[in-house]
Amino acid sequence: QVQLVESGGGSVQAGGSLRLSCVVSGVGSTWMAWFRQAPGKEREGVAVIKLGSGIIAYGDSAKGRFTISQDNAKNTVTVYLQMNRLKVEDTAMYYCAAESLGTNWMNGDFRYWGQGTRVTVVS
Q: Which of 5, 22, 89, 110 is the most buried (most CB within 10 A)?
């Protein structure tokens, strides 16, 4: 059974950094992504990685500030989202997702989702 557990959210001042983690078990070489959803706004694709391949892509809001990466352990994979130079508009619930079901990751069509971790950026 696939499980995704996110952590690392919190409150930070604008300009600061946070690193989100998503520990996943039960997946192979699949696509994993970070999405976010702010109150009253649609879900937005932040970054995606093809496990084991080095293929990475970012949403426009993340380019130049966020970095997605992976770390493999024996039975689990951790996908990180390093977020630098955070802005107030980065405030959102951040979700980890695994196994893309479509051809465009930005559509958010993933089979598995985590519970989310909240990021609050204050000015």
A: 22
